[in-house]
Amino acid sequence: MPTIHIDFEEAVYIVAQYLESQNWFLVNIYSLTQEIWDDIIESPTVTTLPRQTFTTQIPYAYLAHIYHFCSQPNHNQHQQAWQELTHWAHKVAKKICASESPDIQEEIAQLALIKLTRSCQKQSLNYPRTFYAYINRTIRNQFIDFRDKQDRKTGQDVSIVDIVSNTEEKSDWETIPEINHQQASSTEQIIMEDEKDKQIIQFFANTLPTELQRQILTEYFINNLSPQQIAQKLNKKPVEIRLAKARAVKRLRQLPQEKKHELLDILNMGRES
What we know:
Elements: E1 5-6, H1 8-22, H2 29-40, E2 49-50, H3 51-70, H4 78-96, H5 102-122, H6 131-151, H7 160-164, H8 187-207, H9 211-222, H10 227-234, H11 238-253, H12 257-267
Antiparallel strand pairs: 1-2
Helix pairs in contact: 1-2, 1-3, 2-3, 3-4, 4-5, 4-6, 5-6, 8-9, 9-11, 10-11
């Protein structure tokens, strides 16, 4: 048996301190304490319990309420609940992805929040107390996916041809692809490559819905800039560049076959048959 025990009044104090440390303010301290107390104490005659056992239950109990608020768009605490969940997700991502840069940590947190949003919208958790573990598992899975992508790199970079030819992306798009710009050995070839670039940029203008997506693909595929370089040039966060690029690539992959052939024709300009 543990030697450290608490009574109900000390439990209230522990809950108050914990909620304040997390900037959690949506649930009444006394009601949350009573909820946890009743959950742990099976017999009404028991008045003490191990301090650590009680403390570890606080995030489980509180995040169950967050799940409830986030699952109900019309609830008056809905917006604040999402703010608290977002803050918590970033905190968990920072801990789980401690070996990665802040930008990667932020990206993984945002991707996890997309899945958490779907879960809340579908109200897919039968037992809200599992939301705490679900958050951690979702973020950890996103991190594992990220590391797997890094491990599977083959040295081959994604190209526009890969995209429109319905082939799977061969590696993480962090690496810089080559758009098959050969060393220009003549004035004619230089003019041809310049014309090809102009037509590709025009193709992006006609098929991509946002100026940001068009700018990113132009800088990435035409000017061979890395995501970090694009972010600096456009005064954006790298995570914004990655997400916008992913949406743009998805858009190109979903183009009708005739549009894909149009782009392939542009890419094949100047090549010997």
